[in-house]
Amino acid sequence: MFPGQEIVWINEQTIPHILTSQTLRNSNGAYMNTPAIFPGNKTSFGVGIREGNRQHAYTSTTDQAIVGTITVSANAAT
User: Fold this and answer.
1) How far apart are CA 33 and CA 61, in angstroms?
2) For residue 76, what pLDDT band results from cuts at 50, 70 and 90?
3) Which residues pair with 69 in a beta bridge?
4) 3 near 48, Cβ under 8 Å?
5) In whole angstroms, what is the distance from residue 68 CA to residue 55 CA?
6) pLDDT per residue over 23-68, tens digit each?
7) What pLDDT shows up at residue 75?
8) Residue 6 to residue 9: CA distance in whole angstroms
């Protein structure tokens, strides 16, 4: 991912998920905290334009087994 790009999640499970990150922020400076993503629905989050090279962990508040890492690279691919 690069700053300014949008991440999209699709919930293919049978329970809703709320995804959160303690480190990843949007361009307004708000940490990632998605609305509830109900089964079959999707949501998105815009990576902040000031985010630099870093890995960001996230988890679901409704299922702690759902975890992931988002890698942000401040340098565009060449």
Assistant:
1) 10
2) low
3) 57
4) yes
5) 10
6) 999 999 999 999 999 999 999 999 999 998 999 999 999 999 999 9
7) 74
8) 10
Q: Which residues pair with 10 in a beta bridge?
A: 42
Task: Assess contact for 66 and 59: CB atoms under 8 A.
Answer: yes
DSSP track, 11-64: --SSS-B-EEEEEEE-TTSPEEEPPPB-TT-EEEEEPPTT--SEEEEEEESS-T
* Cα dihedral 39/29/58/46 (nearest 10): 50
Q: With 0-12 CB in 10 A as exposed, 13-18 as middle and 19+ as buried, what is 61?
A: middle
Q: Most distant CA pair in the chain: distance in Å? A: 40
Question: Is the pLDDT reported for residue 78 higher than 60?
Answer: no
The tokens for 46 are 């815009």
